Each structure stands twice: as structure tokens, then as C-alpha cells.
């Protein structure tokens, strides 16, 4: 039995600017996104029917984005073969790290190979955009500027490695992303200028200055979610001055100079503040075949 497997990387939003609300009800965004080394593990293998297995029971069902994507691909291409998808999770759920979206895209890439079907990148991009706004970015990962509702992705060449400490506060909110967008006010909207400036700086080989990092949801969560405020203050207490939200939260990240520096901060967060965290590095692309 042939088993194909790959890593499925998480992401950070270095910027997440919301420009306004569109006529279709979605919001227009401009975001610099970056895949990171924190990753789930996905396997696909031949089977008579299409099925999914996940080590987290709460997403071990047909509502899992990877299963929804697999069913859509199978139906769209009229594929009769089945497959068994196995997901081993490391990326926290509903954390603003894009784990579910990444899983869905990597599962599709593996199924393309398993079923030996030809799908153009354009068609695959259209298909994944039907499932979720984050998915088109994960077709390539790396560093990219993402615009529209998430369907317009422009890759940014970036050979520089960056290290981050990521803290994931607890936040149990049903339909979290929808709820967070509903809290935005006109004063939270920006022009997209910070994302454009950061894109230009990265393209020219420059550094990533913290003053260009921005997230439209950060002040909302800091002001309304005690667990996010607690984690933010824990990061401040261990000497982090620049702390940023990713996605619509609740995860926070801070850039560090090296993996060793990150691990020292990770230990302080754990032993002095009871905060679990990850030390991660920027990853150049998504779907690392093994």
C-alpha cells in the first residue's frame, strides 16, 4: 500500500490590515503572511472510500476542512477512487495560525499525487478559495502579500530566516473569525499602506521593522479578552517590547534574534508565568513531502 506524507505548516500574519467591508459581505484585507516551522503531519493512502482520521477527536469528522476539500476535489473531477487521510496535529486549533486551511491544501496536493490527476494551479486556487479565505496562500506558502478576501496572492522572494516565540492564549468562541470581524469599527480600517511598505522592504532584501507590523484585531482582543491580555503582559514581563497578534487571534508572537534566544524566553514564560509557547522559524514553502 502506497502512503504519501507531508508536513503542513502554520502561518503568521506579519501584517493584517482590513481596508473595509465589501458589497458581498466579506472584508477587504491586505496582509503579509509567512509560513513557519510549526507543522502538522498528513498522510494519505489508497482506500475504497474517502475517509479521514485525526488524533484530535473534535475535528475527526466530515466538517474537517481537509475532508471538505477532498470531497470537493473528488466530486469536481468525478474521481471514483477513495483515500484515507490521516492528520497528526501539532498546530493549535482556531488560534490564528491557519492550521485547518494548511491541512486542507496539503491534503489536496497529496490526493492529486495519489490519484494521479492533472489540475492546473489556477483551477486548484479557485477550488480552495471556495472553502476558505486563507487557503489560496497555502498553495505555495513562504512569504506573500494576500489581498481581496484572501484569494489574491503575490509571492515575495525572501531568503532571510526569522525566529519567533508564539504564545497561544485560550479563547473558546464559536465561529471565532466571524465574531472578530463583527467587532471591527471604521476606525480599525487602514489603507493597506503598511503591507505595501513591508512588501517593498522584503523584496529589496531589507529587514522587517516592528513598526510596520500591524493587526486590525489586536486592540480589540487586548481590550476584551482577558486571556490575551494575560499572555501579552507575560511576554512584556520577560522583556518583549514588540508583541503582535496573528490572524484574528488569539495567538501572539514576538520576533527573536535566534532559536537559543527564543528557547530562553520560552523557559521564562513557562516557569514564571505558566505560559506554554512555541519557538519557530520562518519556512520557505508549504507541503514539505517526506
UniProtKB/TrEMBL annotation:
InterPro entries: GHMP_kinase_C_sf, GHMP_kinase_N_dom, IspE, Ribosomal_Su5_D2-typ_SF, Ribsml_uS5_D2-typ_fold_subgr. Keywords: ATP-binding, Kinase, Nucleotide-binding, Transferase. GO terms for molecular function: 4-(cytidine 5'-diphospho)-2-C-methyl-D-erythritol kinase activity; ATP binding. Residues 64-142 form the GHMP kinase N-terminal domain. GO terms for biological process: terpenoid biosynthetic process. NCBIfam families: ispE. HAMAP family: IspE. This is GHMP kinase N-terminal domain-containing protein. It comes from marine metagenome.
Amino acid at each position: 500500500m502506497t502512503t504519501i506524507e507531508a508536513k503542513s505548516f502554520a502561518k503568521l500574519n506579519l501584517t493584517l490590515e482590513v481596508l473595509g467591508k465589501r458589497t458581498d459581505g466579506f472584508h477587504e484585507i491586505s496582509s503579509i503572511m509567512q509560513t513557519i516551522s510549526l507543522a502538522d503531519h498528513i498522510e494519505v493512502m489508497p482506500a475504497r472510500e474517502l475517509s479521514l482520521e485525526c488524533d484530535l477527536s473534535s475535528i475527526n469528522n466530515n466538517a474537517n476542512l481537509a475532508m471538505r476539500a477532498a470531497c470537493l476535489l473528488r466530486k469536481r473531477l468525478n474521481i471514483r477512487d477513495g483515500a484515507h487521510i490521516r492528520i497528526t496535529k501539532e498546530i493549535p486549533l482556531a488560534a490564528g495560525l491557519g492550521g485547518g486551511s494548511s491541512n486542507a491544501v496539503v491534503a489536496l496536493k497529496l490526493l492529486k499525487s495519489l490519484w494521479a490527476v492533472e489540475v492546473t494551479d489556477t483551477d486548484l486556487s479557485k477550488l480552495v478559495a471556495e472553502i476558505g479565505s486563507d487557503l489560496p496562500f497555502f498553495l505555495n506558502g513562504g512569504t506573500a502579500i494576500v489581498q481581496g478576501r484572501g484569494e489574491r496572492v503575490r509571492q515575495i522572494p525572501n531568503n532571510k530566516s526569522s525566529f519567533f516565540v508564539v504564545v497561544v492564549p485560550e479563547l473558546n468562541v464559536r465561529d471565532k473569525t466571524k465574531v472578530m470581524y463583527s467587532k471591527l469599527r471604521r476606525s480599525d480600517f487602514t489603507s493597506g499602506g503598511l503591507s505595501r511598505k513591508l512588501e517593498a522592504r522584503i523584496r529589496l532584501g531589507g529587514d522587517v521593522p516592528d513598526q510596520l507590523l500591524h493587526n486590525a484585531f489586536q486592540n480589540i482582543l487586548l481590550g476584551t479578552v482577558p486571556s490575551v491580555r494575560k499572555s501579552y503582559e507575560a511576554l512584556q514581563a520577560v522583556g518583549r517590547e514588540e508583541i503582535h497578534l496573528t490572524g484574528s487571534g488569539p495567538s501572539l508572537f514576538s520576533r527573536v534574534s535566534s532559536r537559543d534566544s527564543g528557547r530562553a524566553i520560552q523557559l521564562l514564560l513557562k516557569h514564571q508565568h505558566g505560559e506554554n509557547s512555541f519557538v519557530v522559524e520562518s519556512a520557505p514553502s508549504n507541503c514539505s513531502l517526506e
